[in-house]
Amino acid sequence: MTAGSIGDHPDAPGVDTASRPPRVVVVGAGIAGLAAALRIAEAARPVELVICEAGSRAGGVIATERDGGYLVEAGPDSFLTEKPEALRLCERLGLAAGLIGVQTGATRAYVVRRGRLVPIPDGFRLVAPTRLLPWLRSPLFSWPGKARMAMDLVLPRGRPAADETIGSFVTRRFGREAFERVAQPMIGTIYTGDAAALSLEATMPRLADVERRYGSVIRGLVLAHAAARRPGRGTVAPGTGSGRRLGIFAALADGMQALPDAAAARLPAGTLRLRTPVGAVARAADGVRYTVALEGGPPIEADAVVIAVNAPAAARLVAGLDGALASHLGAVAYASSASVTLAYRRDEIRHPLDGLGFVVPQAERRPILAASFASVKFPGRAPAGRVLIRVFLGGALAPEMAGWDDDRLAAVVRGEMEALLGAAGAPHFVRVLRHRDTMPQYVVGHLARVAEIDERLAGHPGLTLAGAAYRGIGIPDCIRSGEAAADRALEAVSAWTGGDPARRAVRRPPG
Fold first, then answer.
1. 160 pLDDT higher than 50
2. DSSP per residue over 321-373, as a string?
3. What is residue 510's predicted lDDT score, i.e. its pLDDT?
């Protein structure tokens, strides 16, 4: 690595800033910020690196707790393997041997229908079936509902507006029943949002592309599913040398926090500053560099800045630099939620727990969004003879629930476990966690807003943004976002320090 520590006061009097290597400041040490920092640290040319994190640990929403033999994920419990960025980072950090897939026998998922858990038909892909017989035999849909879904095979390509909600798309192709019973709870749970308001192009662009290419979404998904099942198309765990294959989801045996911990440990000594909140990012006196104002410390002058915090926080940081950019960032809505993780003895639950978990349609009018059978999904999450279940509440459709006290949330969840899973007695372990303003809502118009953000950023060379607020909420998306932001920052400082005054000139934002 060529990046090095710059000490406690990089811009102290006497430091010749003209002769030092270019300096890049990363604001935020979530997984996007860590990915950006690693990319900068591994740059081919010398770069001084500073990572400012307001909290006491790196990792952001990725956090793992251990208590009494239980492993509790406070944030995401896994990542998608079909997007390669997280797998590649695990390999680079020496974590590949610790990757695990979903346990055998835990591949199905359930949906609540009239107070009972009904399996989602085998081969059902979020909004549509890819296998005929399991779908036809499923009690989840009525026969009129199935007939309406089958119309997708003959309906022409739609001509939606430039941006369409998921609710509009699914209802247009498959009918209201398909949306209410499966698409709404599945997609609404992923985003803790309102699927009737979320943008299809921003959240599920593959579905829009399938309709454009094939007309019938069912036909397109069937063909894609068949192609994915061809020999050699599985996802191989990198770096293990065993040829073992992972499924759609992968996790780390020691918990997801192992990923940011390993990334932070790989950074050059002294570059990560915890408990260092940033107050603002402004243009430096020379009109080219940036000044990063710290809360409670001397400012840092930077040649480039990567802002890897949530959009509202980013808006506050750039408010004095570019009011229009701050306005666009501040318009990105977020949802808050809560999770309650509880444990029972296996013999205290009547349900077979033979799946990943279940989702709850809004039409069921129940107080929870979904539940994950954590200890069934991945090994090592609970002691022998115990089961660990993680339940989600709140989100965009019930934001007030994130503010309920622990006892109220735990009581609601306990009642739901009794009603839906046949859980008997008091749970032996309970952990209540809140996730405030952690999930960006990609509502209709989101991609246009991101384009406006990019346009404003073009007027501030060396200033880049990263994170879940823009082009994807998953761990691989955030890693890709951080690495791309780092590349843009490095490109900017390379141009600026190349001696070409014209390339150092600041482009004024439009308007």
1. yes
2. T-HHHHHHHHTS-EEEEEEEEEEEEGGGB-S---SSEEE--GGG--S--EEE-
3. 35
Q: For residues 460 and 452, give the distance between their C-alpha atoms in angstroms, rounded to a whole number.
A: 13
pLDDT tens digits for range 321-344:
999 999 999 999 999 999 999 999
Distance CA(478)–CA(28), nearest Å, equals 12
What is the CB neighbour count within 10 angstroms for residue 286? 10
329: Cα separation from own chain's centroid: 18
Structure tokens at 271: 């570059």
**Beta carbons of 167 and 184 less than 8 angstroms apart:** yes
Q: Rounded CA gap, 274 and 51, in Å?
A: 8
Give dist(CA 172, CA 160) in Å, integer.
10
Locate 201 and state its tokens. Answer: 């192009």
- The residues, ordered by sequence, that sit 6+ positions from 406 with a Cβ below 8 Å of its Cβ are 432
How confident is the model at residue 294, as a pLDDT?
97
> Residue 254 burial (CB < 10 Å; 0-12/13-18/19+)?
middle
- Which residue in this structure is represented by tokens 């951080």? 482
Q: Which stretches of 44-121 are assigned E, i.e. beta strand? A: 48-52, 64-67, 70-73, 79-80, 99-101, 110-113, 116-119
Question: 508 or 81: whose pLDDT is higher?
Answer: 81
Which pLDDT band, with edges at 50, 70 and 90, does 225 fall under? Answer: confident
- Tokens 């910020």 correspond to 33
Can you tell me which residue has the tokens 């570019």? 322
pTM of the entire predicted model: 0.90
Residue 275 has which token pair?
A: 């408990």
Q: How far apart are CA 140 and CA 70, in angstroms?
A: 34
How do residues 68-102 score in pLDDT, each as one tens digit? 999 999 999 999 999 999 999 999 999 999 999 99
pLDDT band, very low/low/confident/very high, at 287 (cuts 50, 70, 90): confident
**Cα–Cα distance measured from residue 61 to residue 57, given in angstroms and rounded to the nearest whole number:** 11
pLDDT category of residue 232 using cuts at 50, 70 and 90: low
**β-pairing verdict for 48-52 and 23-27:** parallel
Q: Find the Cα–Cα–Cα–Cα dihedral 446, 450, 455, 460, rounded to 10°.
A: 140
Residues comprising the chain, all counted: 511
Beta-bridge mates of residue 283 = 290
Q: What is the DSSP string of 203-253?
A: H-HHHHHHHHHHS-HHHHHHHHHHHHTSTT-SEEPTT-SS--EE-SEEEET
**HEC string of 465-496?**
ECCHHHHCCCHHHHHHHHHHHHHHHHHHHHHH
Q: What is the pLDDT of residue 509?
A: 35
pLDDT band at 163 (very low <50, low <70, confident <90, very high): confident
Secondary structure element (H or E) that encloses residue 80, with its range: strand 79-80
